[in-house]
């Protein structure tokens, strides 16, 4: 088996603690011969700023570019609230997405049945929920130029951000959504604000055009504001939702919270397949943040990180069975009643980050 | 008493049916001598397009500019899905907002206690909910230039929308939010994406600066994606939320849906006070849309329209007691068990649009 390379970027806050569990997991998988991963670790976010004065160093960017997959923890914390805009922790993540060309962000919002009670929504509305939000990740208002603040004098300033999309960017993300929907419920909702935004008009036009190549897909248009409503009203009406960078940011967070499993949700950010090798650049990260309030206490929930690793196994290494095995192991420990503090329920057993990691690995 | 002028714009779909109830209400109020409203009606949206080829005629724009308050129904429907972008139904509403200078959009998300069960959220999370979303309405990506689609050849197009904010636009909406919060829970959350958008950086800077004039206000910053999450997780943590045009569009819809009272929620869009008269231009509209699927059947819920009229009484005419009386009448008919189809519950009595309007008027 060829060696597969990973680049681990734990980042800040609980990022380091949950990444330590990933290292245990890799050691276990390599030990059993199931995988042959080699890896290095680097710095991103606040810790990179502390060490190098930037949110990610050039050396670490090169390692990220060279690796088969980047495993990312979380960035940010109050310590870096006032660092200059260009070197704020998030800049490291945004640069990784952009320079690795990770245009396709897959954010599953699933409800672990053991946790259906934890949702703020009524149980019957979320039990069995399985939505996949496909978010465009390298375009839109995140990266468009001009993006600047101008001093107008008289104490007045003008701030500008620019939402830009070209047809090809919309086409490729739509096709990712359609391809994934073909392996699921074959239903896609495309969300935009075409009643107000020209980028929405183009978005809708290109998505519908691409949809013609997928006659089996049941394609719906939905306005982004209505999508936010419908997610709250009846999330199970959705299968796959495809949307732009900014709407994807907001709608996927709302969807994640609905499941009651926020601390448990993974994400994958994928580039285009290399024409020669067929390989995609990829980064895997939990949806939750760096949780500075509980960092360093050994109580963070490593499940979203493990589930992100499962996505890496599936999407970067084609190890679909192993990915499913890992996901089943996660469900099993939940069914066994193990809980970290964030998801603690009466009648369950409260465990540390390390105990949760060990329990999942033991199930494998 | 000086005559107060209203301009009624029923619009499309159920807009005409719910506006007919407003006419009954005005006749009643004028009849009792409580008010002295004179009004005219005009066309906006699809019906204006059918009549004049535009989403609102110049003549009607002039009447809207001259009136003390515009009472707006709803616009749009499948019939006009393919009309040219510049004359689509929404363009009428957007022009009204812009030309009347209605920068402050007040969107209360309250949960009528009789309807707490209707929310998709657990009852204890929404019972008694009373959030006020203050949305900037004449700036941001809705109106910034360039806003265009360019043909690049080779079947490729590029779409651009521009998010622009100047300090004064942020300052004045922040002060509206602070002033309103002073009459309520004195807590304001300001939502932006300052970790990604320069307009967010400026937004936060200006809001914090304005906040210094309101030392009693408990001011919080929240990222817009986290705001979407927190609204779903625990909406009662919020009192007033101030945000930009686009985030306000999405977050207020999510908040409205949470209450289980979506068909019941009003909104007010206010301009700056005239330096000479102290009067503000204003438009009042329900949060729900034109509901073409049920239009013409006499079953639409007029409550959001009535609640919008109550906001007009309060904000445009200083008739605070009468506004409260109307709002109480709405709650009372709900407590009595009257329901239009959209909010029907077992054990309640299903009524038509007209019956609901009559019942509320009878309570006055
Ligand atoms: C950290 C931040 C820049 C990022 C985003 O806005 O994309 C985050 O919210 C996310 O969704 O991954
Ligand atoms: C109809 C549409 C243009 C409008 C908006 O996007 O502002 C609507 O969604 C609203 O929230 O009032």
Automatic annotation (TrEMBL), chains A, B:
InterPro entries: IsoCit/isopropylmalate_DH_CS, IsoPropMal-DH-like_dom, Isopropylmalate_DH. Keywords: Amino-acid biosynthesis, Branched-chain amino acid biosynthesis, Cytoplasm, Leucine biosynthesis, Magnesium, Manganese, Metal-binding, NAD, Oxidoreductase. Residues 5-360 form the Isopropylmalate dehydrogenase-like domain. It catalyses: (2R,3S)-3-isopropylmalate + NAD(+) = 4-methyl-2-oxopentanoate + CO2 + NADH. PANTHER family: 3-ISOPROPYLMALATE DEHYDROGENASE. Belongs to the isocitrate and isopropylmalate dehydrogenases family. LeuB type 1 subfamily. This is 3-isopropylmalate dehydrogenase. It comes from Pelagibacterium flavum.
């Amino acid at each position: 088996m060829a060696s597969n390379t990973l680049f681990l970027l734990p980042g800040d806050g609980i990022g380091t603690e949950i990444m330590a569990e990933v290292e245990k997991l890799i050691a276990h998988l390599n030990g059993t011969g199931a995988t042959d991963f080699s890896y290095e670790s680097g710095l991103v976010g606040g810790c990179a700023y502390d060490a190098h004065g930037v949110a990610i160093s050039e050396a670490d960017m090169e390692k990220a570019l060279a690796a088969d997959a980047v495993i990312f923890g979380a960035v940010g914390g109050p310590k870096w609230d006032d660092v200059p805009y260009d070197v704020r922790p998030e800049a490291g993540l945004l640069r990784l997405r952009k320079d690795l060309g990770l245009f396709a962000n897959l954010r599953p919002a699933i409800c672990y049945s053991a946790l259906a009670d934890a949702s703020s929504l009524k149980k019957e509305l979320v039990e069995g929920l399985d939505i996949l939000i496909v978010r465009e990740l390298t375009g839109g208002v995140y990266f468009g130029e001009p993006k600047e603040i101008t001093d107008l004098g008289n104490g007045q300033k003008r701030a500008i951000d620019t939402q830009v999309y070209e047809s090809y960017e919309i086409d490729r993300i739509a096709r990712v959504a359609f391809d994934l929907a073909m392996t699921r419920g074959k239903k896609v909702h495309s969300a935009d604000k075409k009643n107000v935004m020209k980028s929405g008009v183009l978005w809708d036009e290109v998505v519908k055009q691409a949809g013609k190549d997928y006659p089996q897909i049941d394609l719906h248009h939905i306005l982004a504001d209505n999508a936010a409503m419908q997610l709250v009203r009846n999330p199970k009406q959705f299968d796959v939702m495809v949307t732009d960078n900014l709407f994807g940011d907001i709608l996927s967070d709302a969807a994640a919270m609905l499941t009651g499993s926020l601390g448990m949700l993974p994400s994958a950010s994928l580039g285009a397949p290399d024409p020669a090798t067929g390989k995609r650049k990829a980064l895997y990260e939990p949806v939750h943040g760096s949780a500075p309030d509980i960092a360093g206490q050994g109580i963070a929930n490593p499940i979203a990180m493990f589930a992100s690793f499962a996505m890496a196994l599936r999407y970067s290494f084609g190890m679909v069975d192993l990915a499913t095995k890992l996901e089943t192991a996660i469900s099993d420990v939940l069914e066994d009643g193990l809980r970290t503090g964030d998801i603690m329920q009466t009648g369950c057993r409260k465990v540390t980050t390390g105990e949760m990691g060990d329990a999942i690995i033991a199930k494998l």
